[in-house]
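Practice problem: predict the structure.
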Amino acid sequence: MSDNYTLTAMQKEVDQYIQQFKSGYFTPLAQMARLTEEVGELAREVNHYYGQKQKKLSEVPNTVEEELGDILFVTMIMANSLDVDLTEVFEKNMAKFNHRDHNRFERKDEKQE
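Answer:
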């Protein structure tokens, strides 16, 4: 994968992948169910790696990275099917967080008095 990937390029690549199948995009509700399933799988992996619940020897070894990748992929599928530009959404969210949470947390560059 190139370091030059953008959200726009990734959404386009996901769309090209989905368009090769007759079924195309699933309904928003089916996509939400899939996203929920993937988030649950991420929670399970986080619990295995950072929590108290150890993985069973019979369980398939997945990684947090793999599950985050699945969530990203399914998020892009859902965004594409709903005509959501994730770059635009990201820019709006960052503006919101930078404004709303500007003074919420102590910054590393602030001097302690």
